[in-house]
Write a structure and sequence with these properties.
binds adenosine-5'-diphosphate, alpha/beta, Rossmann fold, about 160 residues
Length: about 160
């Protein structure tokens, strides 16, 4: 296990300032933060895995210890394959806690060397989620306070053309 590496898995459809806050805080603790985009077949996603990776790369371009990757299938298999042992997830609410608690326990049952660590959302980000941002964008609302500036144009464009 590599104790100085953490994996931050998720959909990131698209990456938000809430995600970026977790990434930056993890960077202050770990030598390497590997952001892993889940690539499971799912037609409900607004952006392809390649697009989500490209947006994360732009958003994290000033963070030298971040690596963007993708995986398909089980997170525990990805962890085993890469030799990473620590999973970082963010918590916004009691609802997040319920699902994350179950997932962390199942992941540890499937691969006991995987340790899940949780970071509370920072004040000001608790209400931000990729899905609510997509909803606002689809109705032409202003999402500029919720996503990194460098990816704002492509999100707006995606929803304008729908
Ligand atoms: P998933 O589909 O795996 O939940 P997401 O991209 O929605 O993927 O989220 C990835 C992780 O980031 C999850 O742990 C989620 O709780 C966390 N997260 C999402 N939005 C925020 C936020 N605003 N503040 C803190 N953590 C967040």
């Amino acid at each position: 296990m590599k104790p100085n590496v953490c994996v931050y898995p998720g959909s990131f459809d698209p990456v938000t300032l809430g995600h970026l806050d977790i990434i930056k805080r993890a960077c202050a603790i770990f030598a390497e933060v590997r952001v892993a985009v889940l690539n499971n077949p799912d037609k409900t996603k607004a952006f392809s895995v390649e697009e989500r990776i490209a947006m994360l790369e732009k958003a994290c371009q000033n963070l030298p210890n971040v690596r963007i990757d993708s995986f398909s299938g089980l997170l525990v298999s990805y962890m085993r394959k890469t030799g990473a042992g620590i999973v970082i997830r963010g918590l916004r609410s009691a609802g997040d806690f319920e699902t994350e608690f179950q997932m962390a326990q199942m992941n540890s049952r499937l691969n006991e060397s995987v340790e899940s660590l949780f970071m509370m959302t920072s004040p000001g980000y608790a209400y931000i989620s990729s899905s609510i941002i997509k909803q606002i964008a689809s109705f032409g609302g202003d999402i500029s306070a919720f996503v990194p500036d460098c990816i704002l144009p492509e999100i707006i464009e995606r929803f304008q053309n729908r």
